[in-house]
Automatic annotation (TrEMBL):
The keyword Transcription regulation applies. Residues 70-251 form the IclR-ED domain. PANTHER family: HELIX-TURN-HELIX TRANSCRIPTIONAL REGULATOR, ICLR FAMILY, HTH-TYPE TRANSCRIPTIONAL REPRESSOR ALLR. It comes from the Bacteria. InterPro entries: GAF-like_dom_sf, HTH_MetabolicPath_Reg, Tscrpt_reg_IclR_C, Tscrpt_reg_IclR_N, WH-like_DNA-bd_sf, WH_DNA-bd_sf. Residues 9-69 form the HTH iclR-type domain. Keywords: DNA-binding, Transcription, Transcription regulation. This is IclR family transcriptional regulator.
Amino acid sequence: MPPSTESGLSSVGRALRLLEAVAEGPPLGATELAARLTTSKATAFRLARTLQANGYLEQLEDARYRLGPRCLVLGARVSSEIDLRQELRGAEEELYARTQETVLLTVMAGRFAVCLDSIPSSHAVVSVAQIGTVWPPHAVSGGLAILAEDDELRDEYLAEPLTSHAPDTITDPSALRDVLVETRRVGYAVNDNYLRPGVCAIGAVVRKPSGEAVAALSVMLPELRLRETGVETLSQTVCAVADRASHHLGWRPVTAAG
């Protein structure tokens, strides 16, 4: 293979590793990216600027990088052939009207959970998420809800190390498997301070006609308000809206008679 071709492939590999590094956690600066890639800061900066120019990264005011809108577009295309954001906007608005809390629409893109849409809470103290935000699925309610419904995806995900993002993040595969089994049994997932201390969420899957999970609807709120409202009360609301959204997409639950 000619040297120029080898160099090109090497650059592509580093660019993909850079995207994965940014997707795994909070925004990263050029120095941190260089350490993750075991390359020079200049090389990391050049790769980041190229990805930024093409919409795959965004640079924050503090010079750190996060995933850009192009990643969201690709993730959405992989996750579904329909425009879920448009199809499920009514369900998001209903969930917001019933809870007045931040509502999230989450899809899976590879090993990551992606915020496809969101409606911010009207409360003075809120937890927000930007469209395109990428999360580790084991640390957010939408990701947990989807993992619990997909055995193959769950097993593939558990085959890799679980990253820690807060003191309460579940990083033991056996413990996470137990949580996913319980999530599937009750029909909803609870993010109990797994991503950020003091921030909780409850999520339930939205199903396509085949019954497979295509997305998840979640309500995110401060831990104090969740304790005041109660997990049982809020989960009933989330599940009811998610079931209606699934019905809108064409899913029909199998009954004993059917």
